[in-house]
Amino acid sequence: MSEEKKNAKTVLRELQDKIAQDAWDAKNRGEKVGWCASNFPQEITTAMGIPVVYPENMGAAVGAKGGGQRMCEHAEGMGYSGDLCSYARINFAYADLKECPELEIPFPDFLLCCNNICNCMIKWYENLALELDIPLILIDIPHLEGEECDEDRVKYIRAQFDDCIARLEAITGKKMDYGRLREVMEISQRSSRAWLRAVGTMENIPSPFSGFDIFNNMAVACVGRGTVEAAEAFELLADEYEALAKEGKSSFKGEEKYRILFEGIACWANLRTTYKALQSRGINLTATVYGPAFSFLYQNLDELMAAYALVPNCNCFERELELRVRDGLKNKVDGAVFHMNRSCKKWSGNLYEMERQFREKTGVPTVVFDGDQSDPRCFSEAQYETRIEALTEIMELRKGANRDA
Amino acid sequence: MDETLTLGMDVGSTTSKCLILRGGKDIVASALIPAGTGTSGPRRALEEALGRAGLTREDMASITATGYGRATFPGADYVVSELSCHALGAHALDGEAKTVIDIGGQDAKVLRLGPEGTLGSFLMNDKCAAGTGRFLEVMARVLERDVSDLAEMDAQAADIVPISSTCTVFAESEVISQLAKGADLNDLVKGIHRSVAVRTASLVRRLGVEAPVAMTGGVAQNAGVVRALEKELGTSIRVSPLAQLAGALGAAVYGWRKRRDTE
Fold it and tell me: Which chain B residues contact residue A394 at CB under 8 A?
């Protein structure tokens, strides 16, 4: 098959593998490699040509491949609480064991942490820095309580951005080329715009794709959005979705009878079960905060700083709610499924209130289920099934009532 | 006169309930076996209800299965979640009910009823068993009493011993240590009931308390829990003597309505 004929799914999967391999190759060449938080400004490392890998992505992949429980139990045996994030527990276990049959990432020479998606992550990375005795660079993004990211905040982030570059230059011996940085910023914009165009097609009825695909595709959006290959892959993905939407077709298996918002991180260890219970009932995911979460739109460096403060988890409850309500209504959801993911303090802390206000503001039925991003012990298939079944019965009743009206 | 017979089978986690309905409203026979999914309970409940009515499976226009073991019950024409069935059943028992609290063996649910007892919205307990029927069973065992004695003991209480509602195992330890201190058994039971009520009340408040409030499920038989919940919520709670059969009744109603709507 020629390169041109590959579909976006294949291109994205190959790109993800290539990014992972590039990090290994760099490590094997003796280059310095970092472990990096998922919403760290990747523009810095991409522009400097510094390879980084993402423990959060590893946590998700290990969970999906069935290693989550074993790794979490190992971390608990080391003394870490079972109440900690399962990505962190998997990562602590890997740092200790130095092997993981499901997926391995090169060991780090430095750590890059950014707290715009999770403040607890600072403690995770501080702990790693101590355990592995390597430098930690933190970019602290101020939480926004409804206000804009003003000049003072931009200056505060910018100072850390500049400091990060200086420290990375010292650690790796690689110099920042600001011309290259501008180029990477432009490429990142291309990726973000294409990503938004792709997820924007979920508005169509039927949505041209199975919404669970977002959980797979976002890996590249997270780790590679500053590369031309990623921008091209997302443009291909958006083109494919738009073409399907134009023809009224969808890659979702079966008829799309109902559309839902899925709130929270996927249950990687129970991905198939959680997906099948929905898909078998004709329920497609057409709204998720992951749509806007990996789109960073800016025109210059100052706007870049502000963009990293505008990620959903770095904002107040009211903004988070507004984002979900807006997406839910725009993408015409019939119901919503809220994942009570106790791994994630940020997400589970306000989930019940998020569910209540979302239900009241949109008028659609909702359901909450207990689970975890990578620890399968927190999920009960029977409990999940009952909730999804009842949600489907309500959605069916309401559709029937609308038809009769 | 509508003579259509429909059968509802509620295969719960700890009990199996079967109910036969005529014409969508008259209860012909019912049976309750204290053994749930994965046991002989469902089969025995079915045989007992049919035996009492002098009918056979073939006489039934439809069989609707609900409850925790609904998917494994053989020969069901319809399989429906217990949430929809408890809503329909509660409506059949009390046509005015707007909010239904159902506490079963291993979950607690709060339902908001829509038109004709259809399920409007719902909330369920989280992963912890505290606040469910199982919690009361564990406590009764520690007290060396039958779970059916708890309501009467609560009525005899002169005071209340506070018990945590965070976790069944923690609460069990608390009860044991209170026993060791010589706490009055009746006061302890009242504390246990309040602990269930506090936990359930927070679920009800999240959905919104809309009166009249009815209660179904096995725990509705326990007047102590009902009183404690009334106090927590500041509203009276209606309980039908058939509350434990609400799921099976709702399943039979569902089967009857399916037939009505397709004719």
Answer: 84, 119-122
A38 has pLDDT over 80: yes
Amino acid at A160: Q
Question: What pLDDT digit, counting tens, does each position of A274-288 carry?
Answer: 999 999 999 999 999
For A227-264, b where at least 16 C-beta lie within 10 A, e where not — what string? bebbbbbbbbbbebbbebbeeeebebeeebebbbbbbb
Do A312 and A355 have their domain in common? yes
| Cα nearest neighbour of B72 on chain A | A382
Does A269 share its domain with A295? yes
The pLDDT confidence band at residue A160, using thresholds 50, 70 and 90, is: very high
Nearest-Cα residue of chain B relative to residue A357:
B206
CB proximity B120 to A under 8 Å: yes
A405 shares a domain with A262: yes
CATH number at residue A359: 3.40.50.11900
- Domain that residue A30 falls in: 25-173
* pLDDT tens column, A224-283: 889 999 999 999 999 999 999 999 999 999 999 999 999 999 999 999 999 999 999 999
Q: Which residues of B touch A396 (CB under 8 A)?
A: none
